[in-house]
Amino acid sequence: MARDSTFGVLWCRLLHFEGTERYANYLDAFASDSTMQGLQDSIEASFPLAKDPAKSLEKGFAWLHRNMPSIGIPRIYFINGGFNAPCMMDTAMLGIALECFLGQKSTYYEKLQIPQYLRRQMDPKRIAPAAITGWLEGMYMPMGSMRTVLDNMLYQGKLFYIARQALPQLPEHVVLGFSKEELEWLEASEGSMWRYLSEKEVIFDSNPLIVTQFTGPGPFTRAFGNDSPGRAAVWLGYRIVESYFKANPSASIERIYFSSDSQQLLAKAKYAPK
Questions:
Q1: Phi-psi category of 152—alpha, beta or left, where left has phi over 0 and alpha has psi -120 to 50?
Q2: What does pTM read for this prediction?
Q3: Alpha helices in the chain (DSSP H)
Q4: What's the confidence (pLDDT) of residue 86?
Q5: Phi and psi (nearest 5°) for 236?
């Protein structure tokens, strides 16, 4: 990457050097730091050229290009981001910080005391799903209509669904970011979770704390018990979106992605878990 490249500026944004004209000097300082050099060694050991992580992304973005043509396809860069964020993006560029995907047992994550439920997202197999969903979030997030639990679970459920369609070669639990055991729990508890949310009208709650409780990351979803995974309601959102496309097979996935009418989507999904 050229030191004066457009991506260099974007990289500096991730490293909090945005707005400076001397960004190349800061990148040099970052690259020469002994801690970052050690981290770079770990990245190169985990991702040798023979295991180029770009290979798993090609089919996913090709699917997006075919099925969602208004979503641009980015130029992808793999970087050492210094544990600032797993992905960063601009209108035509996507940077993937490989230090965020070294595997759950990475000694770096142990030293940083990253909780186990977050480490699950830091597996090399999660690069492609994280890139797809991260890019989609960057392209469109209907902030003005993301008020209720239902709004949030369906928006994130759409991201899950699109990633699942774009990456059919990956196991479902990998794409969705759950363990096999968590996915089994969700499938067994689908009906009871939905009854709780709908009968108590939790889906229409707009209290930010309640929204986060059901759709934000965490070791579990408190209302569903300690055995439940975090973001359990997002998985229900995924199932609702899945039900919608089964009931409406000719629907445009691109149009549904940009739609912010959560109640209409729910009604047309004919979602009725047992």
A1: alpha
A2: 0.88
A3: 6-14, 23-32, 34-46, 55-67, 107-111, 116-119, 127-139, 149-166, 172-176, 180-199, 208-215, 232-247, 253-258, 262-269
A4: 86
A5: -60, -40
